[in-house]
Amino acid sequence: MVSPAVRFALGAVSLLATFAAPIFASTGSPFYGDAPDQNHPWAVHDQNRPQPPVVTPGTFSSADQPGKPPSDAVVLFDGTAESLGNWASDKNEGAPTQWIARDGAMECVPKSGYVRSKQLIGDCQLHVEWAAPVKAQGDSQGRGNSGIFLMGIYEIQVLDNYNNPTYADGFACAAYGSSPPLANALRPPGEFQVIDIVFRRPVYRDGKVVDPGYVTVFCNGVLMQDHTQIEGPTGHKTRAVAGPFPDKGPLKLQDHGNPVRYRNIWYRELPVRAVEGGTDGPLSVEATAAKRAAIAAGIRADAAKMDGKTTAAMLRLAESLVYEQDAATLEQVKTWQTQYVAGLTALSADGLKAQEGEVKTVFRAFQYLVKFKIIPADSAPQQELAQLVKSRGWDK
């Protein structure tokens, strides 16, 4: 008669392939990279970590032709008169803008005032294309001047600096009055400049800075601002003063008296940072503990949906211990390990050989738990399993 322990072991093996291949083969393996720690809720190469969202990329713009935005972009202006309705006058609150849509571009009507997006925008990847008038008139700040105002308060300068010098912190792609651009990569007037901005606003908590905020800017594919720290709202002739920004605000485009044209304006929302509750990057001890507990609970719930006390279910349950030490779960896993090892020792040599792949998987899992001090190395089942694996040469 076959003992219950042997039946348990034999019944478990067929489920391991189900556990190991379809669920995890494409997203990683459990018990693999370094375990979570006090500031990182995920293991290294963690199979449980959410997959990145799929985004269909757009196409690149040229000086003559606007590209297409990516699939998750929010389009603010696509060249049509209808999309001009996404903008309002900043000078006359609630009134439609007096800027005009013409030849696929939104053109500033001098002295009509700034325009502002009706959409409020926070941390974002922003794409804007602008062109100064073909006929270059004026010099320095008087030629092809406008501005891209993130949240309505932080200006990335728009200016025709093609063969037109000015003060450094007022050049095109400067954080106006604060940080000059790293280069002058402008095309001639009349051609569209392709601007890409990554904006992370300052974050304060209880009046203290948690993240000062940063801006990165590219112009025609050339880096202009390299993760430049935000020193506060920009201004003319006044030094920026650091302080909190709102969560969201309108995008404003400046009327500086020049008929600058804009096209292909879109943005992508950025995920929240760790300091605001995101789970990528180093977290606080408290936030890490809370996230690890949530991950463990999800894994335990997943194990509960599996077929009873199979190898697959028990290894999944053991995996939850990597994230959170739960006494009841630990006891359940230890009991299963004891029964599993007893079942192996009762098998014939041929029967044991047939279980080689599974035994190696289980052994590696428990070695991992030992390595990261989740279970003790000196437990009798663990030592028996280690001895069995070594005697068979399966530890090589």
The top-level CATH class of the largest domain is Mainly Beta
The number of domains is: 2
CATH architecture of the largest domain: Sandwich
Largest beta sheet, briefly? 8 strands, antiparallel
CATH homologous superfamily identity of the largest domain? Exo-inulinase, domain 1
Strand content: 15-25%
User: Low-confidence spans: pLDDT under 50, at least 5 residues?
Assistant: 1-25
**Shape by Cα distribution:** elongated
Number of helices: 7
Structural class: alpha+beta
Let me know the average pLDDT. 91
Q: Give the radius of gyration.
A: 30 Å
The total count of strands amounts to 15
Distance between the termini: 34 Å
Helix-strand pattern, N to C?
A: HEEEEEEEEEEEEEEEHHHHHH
**CATH fold name of the largest domain, please?**
Jelly Rolls
How much helical structure, as a percent, in the residues? Answer: 25-40%
Question: Can you offer a commentary on this structure?
Answer:
With 396 residues, the protein is of the alpha+beta class. It has two domains: 4-49 and 282-391, no CATH class; 74-276, Jelly Rolls, CATH 2.60.120.560. Helix content is 25%, strand content 20%. The chain contains seven helices and 15 strands. It has helices at residues 4-20, 285-304, 311-320, 327-345, 349-354, 356-371, 380-391, and strands at 74-77, 87-89, 100-102, 105-107, 115-121, 124-131, 146-150, 154-158, 193-200, 203-205, 208-211, 214-219, 222-229, 249-253, 261-269. Strands 1, 3, 4, 6, 9, 12, 13 and 15 form an eight-stranded antiparallel sheet that branches. Strands 2-5-14-7-8 form a five-stranded antiparallel sheet, with no helix packed on it. Strands 10-11 form a two-stranded antiparallel ribbon. β3 (100-102) and β4 (105-107) form a beta hairpin. The two termini are 34 Å apart.
